[in-house]
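To: structure subgroup
Subject: Chain for Friday's discussion

All,

I'm putting the inputs and outputs inline so they're searchable in the archive.
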Amino acid sequence: MSKVAIIGGTGPQGKGLALRLALAGVSVVLGSRDATKAQDAATEMTALLSDKEVFEKGTIADITGMSMEDATKAADELVILSVPYSGHDATLTALAPLLTDKVLVDIVVPLAPGNPKAVEMPKKGSVTEAAQALLGESIPVVGALHNVSAVTLNDLSRAINCDILVCGNDLAAKKKVMALIELMGTKAYNAGLAESARCIEALTPILIRLNISKEVPFSHAGVRICPPEH
């Protein structure tokens, strides 16, 4: 499996994805504005995964850290963007020249400032669509992994407890992302074109609201597609 970059890989979501991918045998390079911070995070995660008393799952791929520019260059094809929404457009603008011949996997959700139970959708309709407009049609953008909890991703003692909805305008790019997701042991579904991200991204604050509610007996729930039993 080729090397995948995670930009913003030192945050909770990025770290969880890096751990899950490395366990699945996928080499990961973390990208951060602070290259030292990225390498420190990579070293920490490598030490965690090397604990054979906990993880006996065959070959564990490497995790390295560097600047976000170098990480983008190092990716063979897939670059996952996992930054706060406030820094989304600026980060993409800086990385755009380096994304030629790559696929951007945008997992950012436009949560409202100070209120994770609401979204403020961008003028383009969704973050996924905004990213595609910013990069141009020559660089495929795939929206994915919006509805999975960072806590769930980082809890390697349990399987990912939800399905993943994937959207974008380039079918081949979506299939590559879906294959990567399924290496982590969960199911990915093609949810349509990039405009579907308007619904998918907006689900996240609903899940957050449910997960912090005192009226439900669970937390860190996600979306599951349930086929009929008959």
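Points worth raising on Friday:
The two ends are 37 Å apart (CA to CA).
Strands lie at 4-7, 28-32, 63-67, 78-81, 103-106, 111-112, 115-119, 141-143, 164-168, 188-190.

D.
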